[in-house]
Amino acid sequence: MTCWSVNRRSTDYVDGRLRGAEKARVEAHLRGCTRCDMRLQDHGSVRSSLQELPKVKSPLSQRTRLRVIASQERKLILEADGSRLRLLWNDWKFRFQQMMRPFTIPATGGLCSSLVLFGALAFTIGNTTRGAAYEVPVMYASQIDANLVPMELRSSIVLTLSLDGNGRIMDYAFRNGSRAVQGDTTTLQHHDIAVPEIPGVMALAQPVSSDIQISVTPMIFIR
Amino acid sequence: MAHPFFANSGKLSILAGAQSGVSEEDARILRGLRSGIEDAYEELIERYEQQIFGMVYRLLGNQSDASDVVQEVFLKVFRGVSTFREQSSLRTWIYRIAVNEANNHRRWFVRHCKLEVPLEETRPEHPNSIEYTPDPGRSPFEQAMDSETRTLIERALTQINPVFRTAVVLRDVQNLSYEEIAEILQVSLGTVKSRILRGREALRRELTQRPDQGFAEAIA
After folding, report:
1. What is the pLDDT of residues B118-143, one digit of tens each?
2. What ipTM does the predicted assembly reach?
């Protein structure tokens, strides 16, 4: 028998599972091979040392915890009352809860912080009306003459402009007393209206479409 | 009057045990667990808690980790008892769950906590923190020597490949048969023998540091 063959049988030999002729052949090899003999003796010593390791005592609290788990499981079984479907449902519910357990705290934290953030920014979302008084020179004049005398008219004109996200005028409407006119940018010139550049309205750092109302006090120039 | 759990271990359970991989005792416990009988749960815990804790502790080398894993194992056993197909014995089934859980835990530990420094050191550098069952027949000197040897062996055990460690622990510490180990690890008998051999050889090398030095010299 070669060293390789003995090595193959060493586990059985050390564990005392070899019998008869096979055992005798291994022992014959060991008598003539110090290296194999020493190795197998060491394996035997390793085995006996491991077997002699003292029994480890589990913590006292562990038994109590196991009893609590057992009690909860018993309750589920008794509640299911032999219904396999209900047991299966409980099992999947348990698996789902186990699966979600690591995500619960981060998800709750994320949800809370997003709610706080959304609540803080909610005021900037939606239709907000802001009143402002500007001296906006809106004028269309066909003739320039130094001798003209300005005269303020009693009626006022309310001009409503619909702006897109980039501050461009999409359409407009104005009311002049009882007269209401609607139109788009191509007809602005036709109604003798010149409007200065209006900055776009921003919400959440993004330009949004909006309506702007401009109250105009019309003036005429007479000679 | 005897409790139905104990009174029912009759003809039917013997037949059930004979036809499947579970013994009559196992079948009785399983029946009790499936019916939610308290004594069955108590008996299962009584019978396997120490064994499973001992094995998991030897695989992980940490008491609190072992305790957590044992709880997971029993929870899985209680949960899985309705789907257990009884093709293997109850013991090998529970051991299989325990080995898998210990492996999962070790992998998780390696991935997440390898670089963490624990506040309370309970790793094998301080193996005395775990409580052992004392041997009243040993003198204080012998107990001190035993403690030294035990420390050496336990440290060596944590150093070897987990695959071989599992096989060696199941065979030499838990005293399971090759067939049971093959069933637990879901491998062939040849693989079991090979893993045990390589595990013992790795332990020998770890303990002696030099392959040519004898084990007895190393621990003397």
Report:
1. 555 554 444 445 666 666 666 565 56
2. 0.74
Mark yes or no for CB contact B132/A56 under 8 Å: yes
More confident residue, B120 or B4: B120
Picking from A41, A70, A77, the nearest residue to B45 by CB comes out as A70
pTM, to two decimals: 0.62
Mutate to test the interface with B, among A38, A42, A55 (most CBs of B within 10 A): A42
Digitized pLDDT (tens) for each residue of chain A, 223 residues in all: 788 888 888 899 998 888 888 889 999 999 988 888 988 888 888 898 888 888 888 888 899 999 999 998 888 888 777 677 877 787 788 778 878 877 888 888 999 999 999 888 876 665 555 555 555 555 556 666 667 777 777 677 777 878 777 767 778 787 766 677 776 666 666 555 566 666 666 666 667 777 777 777 777 777 7
For residue B69, is pLDDT > 90? yes
DSSP string, B206-220: HHHSSTTS-HHHHH-
The CA distance from B88 to B96, in Å, is: 10
Distance CA A194, CA B119 (A): 76
Check CB contact of A100 with chain B, cutoff 8 Å. no
**Nearest neighbour of A53 by CB, restricted to B41, B82, B150:** B150
A-B interface: how many C-beta pairs under 8 angstroms?
A: 130
What does the CA dihedral B171, B174, B177, B183 come to, rounded to 10 degrees?
A: -90
A62–B49: do the CB atoms touch at under 8 Å? Answer: yes
**Bridge partners, residue A172, by sequence:** A161, A183
Mean predicted lDDT score pLDDT of chain B? 78
Q: How many CB atoms lie within 10 A of CB B22?
A: 25
Mutate to test the interface with A, among B41, B150, B192, B213 (most CBs of A within 10 A): B41
Q: Classify A149 as helix, strand or coil.
A: strand
With beta carbons under 8 A apart, name residues in chain B contacting A53.
58, 150, 153-154, 173
Tokens 């069933």 belong to which residue? B183
